[in-house]
Write a structure and sequence with these properties.
The complex is a heterodimer of chains A (about 220) and B (about 240).
Chain A lengths: L3 E7 L6 H10 L4 E8 L5 H7 L5 E6 L5 H10 L5 E4 L11 H10 L4 E5 L9 H18 L11 E4 H6 L9 H11 L4 E5 L15 H16 L1
Chain B lengths: L2 E7 L6 H11 L4 E7 L6 H11 L3 E5 L6 H10 L5 E4 L10 H10 L4 E5 L6 E3 L3 H18 L11 E4 H5 L10 H11 L4 E5 L1 E3 L10 H24 L1
Parallel strand pairs in B: 1-2, 1-4, 2-3, 5-8, 6-9
Antiparallel strand pairs in B: 4-7, 5-7
Helix pairs in contact in B: 5-8, 7-8
The chains are: A alpha/beta (about 220), B alpha/beta (about 240).
């Protein structure tokens, strides 16, 4: 059983997917990489077929089903002791894995979130503001004090995250993971991580409608 | 005859001929087209009367109630003779190709088929951004938080069975009627579904939609829907 399962949901990231996979592969940990291609139509699937790493598993969704669906597909194949979500863009840094892993072991945490809003954060105003707003809303409704609930890097114990019984199919998986962890009174720890935001020109996909979905998700998981 | 198309028209002289021509061209099922003249002060009525001589299934009725979208719709509904009705806007914004998909859903047993702009295959092109924001928020929140069976409740473009219209007393006065009917129908137990549609902002003429005036009416319906949902859960 490897130490860390890295789940990479991918949708139309032909420009960055090879690079990020090489970066992940270069990290010196006992790992398995599970890539879930969520029905990409920009050539991502061809690029993935060419990559042959040792501990790489690639699963293809025929249609685009959503980040949640892709993550859950990956999770069902994950055999590592710990599981982490990794986006297929270059905004986050796989070198932070060891930092997060030592935190989960040292702090005896159930979930470790990589927090971005520490000093030195740069990025477009609207996603940054949106994130702050959503994290603030979540903090208010769930009575917690998180710094960054929508971060990509979420590290958890494999059995623990499977026991949360996650169902969300779209981007709302991010909210579901955090809110279920809070509801189940899991120990959540935040560790500052590096973040290199990309602009919309570079391919950032999040839009205002996703913000609405995030707000609705927070309310739904609070009152359900 | 299966379908009654209801076109509410208030000062649509620039669009109405094109709307009628388009509907007649694209609908190949038997239908009647009722244009409801909503107190127009332009040439809308004359144009429609001329066209009703050309197309024998097109006719004009007058909204004898107070001027307003809801009253025009009510007048149209009280004049239909078919089992199914569908309001089509007089400004060419609706997606006539969706009508066929709606008929399929009716045949599957649904009572209301909603045109939805906010699902795959649907779109909202042009139009005020603020209005679009609220529309999207209301549509998705009712679906996502209350389990409502459509993601675009405020859209007027919906196909209704006569039993739905006959079962309720429409109270709205403005555009919020398009939200009132499916909400009430849902709690009365009617089966509702949706198909994707493309909505395009009008190019000619002026819209009568006044955000500030309509916001309280939509808000009232929204709160009513939430209240009704929780009340239902508590029983």
């Amino acid at each position: 059983m490897p130490l860390l399962s890295i789940i990479v949901p991918v949708y139309n990231e032909a420009k960055t997917v090879r690079q990020i996979l090489e970066k992940i592969d270069a990290v010196d940990i006992d790992k398995e990489i599970i890539v879930v291609n969520d029905g990409s139509c920009d050539g991502t699937d061809n690029i993935l077929r060419e990559i042959k790493f040792n501990n790489l598993k690639v699963i293809h969704h025929k249609n685009n089903r959503g980040k949640g669906a892709a993550f859950l597909t990956g999770l069902s194949e994950a055999n590592g002791e710990f599981v982490i979500i990794q986006d297929a863009d270059l905004e986050y840094d796989p070198d932070d894995y060891s930092k997060l892993l030592s935190a989960i072991k040292k702090e005896r945490a159930d979930v470790v979130l990589g927090a971005r809003f520490t000093k030195g954060y740069r990025g477009s105003f609207i996603p940054r503001f949106g994130n702050r707003f959503l994290t603030g809303l979540l903090n208010l409704l769930f009575n917690v004090k998180l710094n960054d609930c929508l971060t990509c890097y979420k590290l958890f114990r494999n059995q623990m995250v499977k026991s949360l019984n996650l169902k969300a199919q779209s981007f709302d998986i991010e909210i579901e993971i955090v809110t279920r962890a809070i509801k189940n009174k899991l120990r959540i720890v935040e560790i500052p991580i590096a973040y290199h935001p990309r602009t919309y020109a570079e391919g950032k996909k999040i839009r205002w409608r996703d913000g609405i979905h995030a707000i609705l998700s927070i309310f739904r998981y609070r009152f359900n | 005859m299966k379908l009654s198309v209801v076109v509410p028209a208030h000062n649509e002289q620039d669009n109405i001929k094109e709307v009628i021509d388009k509907i007649e061209r694209s609908l190949d099922i038997e239908h009647e087209l009722i244009v409801v003249n909503d107190h127009s002060t332009d040439a809308t009525a004359e144009i429609v009367n001329k066209l009703s001589r050309q197309y024998n299934n097109v006719r004009l009725v007058e909204n004898k109630l107070k001027q307003g979208f809801a009253n025009a719709i009510k007048t149209g509904f009280s004049n239909v003779t078919a089992e199914l009705s569908i309001p089509v806007m007089g400004d060419l914004c609706d997606d006539l190709l969706a009508i066929k998909k709606m008929l399929q859903k009716i045949n599957e047993g649904y009572d209301i088929v909603c045109g939805c702009r906010y699902i795959k295959g649907g779109a909202r092109v042009g139009g005020s951004r603020l209005k679009g924001f609220f529309s999207y928020f209301v549509g998705w929140s009712l679906y996502y938080l209350l389990g409502f069976p459509t993601r675009d409740i405020a859209n007027a473009f919906k196909m209704y069975r006569k039993t739905v219209i006959d079962s309720m007393d429409i109270k709205s006065e403005g555009f919020e009627v398009s939200m009132e009917i499916p909400l009430k129908a849902y709690y009365l137990g009617f089966k509702i579904t949706e198909v994707p549609t493309v909505w395009k902002e009008r190019t000619k003429g002026k819209s009568s939609f006044r955000m500030m005036k309509l916001f309280p009416s939509y808000l009232k319906l929204y709160i009513w829907a939430i209240f009704k949902c929780f009340f239902r859960k508590m029983i």
